[in-house]
Every structure is written in C-alpha cells, then in structure tokens.
Input
Amino acid sequence: MTQKRRLSEEPRSIKQQQQQQQQEIKKKQKQSIPIQREDLQSLLKTINRKKLDFDSEKICSASLSKLDIYGCLVCGKYFRGCKERSPAFLHSISDGHRLFVSFESTRVVILPDEIDIDVNVIHLLDDVNKKLINDIKYSVYPVYSPDTIRKSPYRCFESTQGQLYYNGFVGLNKSTSNNIAYINVIIQLLAHVDPIRDFFLLADKKNHLNDNGLIKNITLIMKKIWSPHLFKLNVGPDELISYIMVNHSNVIKANINCDPQMFLNWLINALCQSDKRLRKILIKTCQGKLKAFAKGNKANIVPFWNLTLTLPEISMFKESKNIDDIEQIKLEDLIMAKFSLDSINNDKLQLIKDNLPQYLFLYIRRFNKSKKLSDSEFYVRNRNQTIVNFDEILTLPFSNDDKISKIRYKLISNVVHDPEKNLYDIEKDYTSNWKIQLPNEQTKDWVEINNTKTTIKNFNLLFLDETYIQVWEKIKD
Output
C-alpha cells in the first residue's frame, strides 16, 4: 500500500512543481513589465492628434538645439533628448506629458522611464492602439513598397477629422514670411514625375540619415505628399525652406516675385550634384538633346532640361479687359516656331527623335527681365498674357532621314501664373501666385492645387489660365 501511495503522489508532486515554476515565471514577467496595461491605456488616451504637427522645423522649444529632437504627443512641442535632465525628460516631469516620438528613429517612448513601446510593451496594446502608434511613426517618416506606389493614388482619410483625400494630391502650406508658392508648385511638379517620385518614396531612412541635406528634406516632403495616413490635409515645406535659406540664401528672397522656372533649373542641377543615382535617373528620363545648325558650321549636339517657348509680342496699347481681348496661340505653333529658320540667333534647331526625353518640360516665357532686377525676379504688370491653347495629347512631327515620324506625349502637369493686385497701393506691381494642375488617374479628374487648397477643374477650361510650365510624358507605342 505504501509503495502504491508513493507512486500516486509522485505525479502530483511533479505537477505541483510545474505549476509553481509557471507561477514564478509569470511573477518575474510581471515584475519585468515596466508599466501595467491599464496605465499604458490611460497614457495613450492623452495623445492629442489635433496638436501634432510633424512638418515644422525640428528645433527644441527649450534649448533651440536641432540635435536628437523628440515631439511631445500631448502638446505637440519639440524637445531635445530623452535622457535624464534633458529638456524632454524635464517636460515629462513638470507637465506630466509622458509620450514622445523621436524624429530620428521614429520610436515612441514613455518618459521619464524611457520605456520604448515597440521593445517593451507592444504586446500590451490592442489593435486600435497598435494602429495609433504605427500611424504616428508613419506620419513622422512614411515608408513605401513598390506595390503601394504602383496602386497610388487611392482614397484615403486624414485621421483628425476623417476627411477624404487622394494621396499625392494634397496642398503645401504657404509661408507667412516668404512668398514660396513658386517653390510649392515645383515640388508638386517633381512629385508627379514617376521615376523621381519613386526614388524619393523608396528611400530608406537608415541609409539616408547622413545624406545630403537637400536630399533628406525633399525625400521627407515627397513621402508626406504621397502619404495615405495624414493627420491633416496639407503638408508643410518648412524644413526644406529653412534648409535652402540657410545653405542657398540667393535662391529664396523674402516677399519678392520669383520665377519657378529659375527654381526648377537650380533644383535639378542641385539634385544632380547631390546624388549620383538621382543624377542618372534625371538624365535618363528628363534630359533631351537638340541639333543646333549654325550658319556655315557643323551641327552641334546640345542637351536640354526644358524647351523654352517664346510667345509672340503683344501690342503695348491693347488693353486686356476680358478673354476676347487677349491674343491666343496653339502650343503646337509655339513649338514649330522654335524649330523654324527664324529661331534665336538665326540658328536652326532640330529635335533628335532618338534622344527625346521620357518627360518633356516646356517653359513658356511670359516675363521680360529688367536690368534692375536679379535673374530670378521680374515685373508682373508687363507680362505677356497671351493664351496658349493645348490638348491632353501632344503630337510632335519630326524630320528623320527624310521620313516623317510622329511621337505622342500626354500632359501630366500644368503650372499656371495667377497674378494678384495690390489692394492697398494700385501703383505697386502685382504679386505673383502660382498654381499647379494635375490629372488624377483614379478619378479621371484634373485637380488644381493652390498652396493648401485643392479643387476639381474642367480640362477644357485649363487653357484660360496663364500657362507657364508644362510636363509631358511620352506615350509608349
């Protein structure tokens, strides 16, 4: 009997030992958890999405430092560091704001304990709060795959008020201290040239932390323009503007009418110098070549980023009070005029069919430069207001080995000039505003972006605006 009793007691003792071990493991796990589930959920409720703005220049609001900046997810202010006695650490104690996001690593931490949510407590979050944390990290630095880019644009909802938008068709804020509309339209223009867009969207943060400052800032703004998880329906170019003003002070001038074409030329050349991979992409897709036949000389091959089209001169005495008074010309006629015998300097220019770019940039010159102004400035009042008529498809005729061939392009961007009168002093020159019109392939609509405002436009009425820069994409045979 005693032997049987011992045998029956042995399994019980083993089970008891296993249960005791499991309890000890759970106890240790509970002790190792830096915060309890209930406390974590209460903290996450303090996140105020309406206060969050990740587009502003990353400067500590306490020390003015630009290094190792964290954003407070409760009040939206920026602070340096998360270690003991750092501004972010002190803010978490003095104001009781404990949740922060790093703008360098995108990690979300709980201060003053410096608990990394992804590393330490992600298993405590439900699906709703996991999505919230991921949305915050994505808003700081969006990440894309080739598949998500291929499917864009698509219907999205900004998370603060639930408003509908299409990624890639969001406005850019207009600075109050500088007239930067001419910069905004060029950023939007390049964001819709697919090879350029893909280069920036697929950029990896880990591999670009030490890259050129211009590349870093444009990468971030491009990623946010195409983000499907925006907190608000516009993106701020503040960091890019600040970088250019500090490092290229001659490019941006306060409260002065500046030329987007000049900025486009500067930016393309600056990007070519900043990154070898991007330079190859730009040359391969956006640069074409011309043959220039000077009198008595052999033909020279001339590379170009854009074709400059000159409008016919208008009468100085003709007032343009309504649309019927303004002269009109077809875009095809402007292009043909450029390649006639009466071209600039009496040189005959000829496009080379095999060297036509995939993306053709056209620049329609409307302003007469004054010797009193810099190259990037102009007088608005004396501009050429001639209307340029164009269709969605552009067919270019070419003479190639005595055989006439045609190449077709489709319009993908239309930058227009929008003059604004000075209401307080009629003697002063007009102010230039700039807008861009883009086709949404999903809805088949044309969308006009005027800084932060987006509106649907009828394509048949686009020609009524003062077209300034166009981008055409070659149609594959």
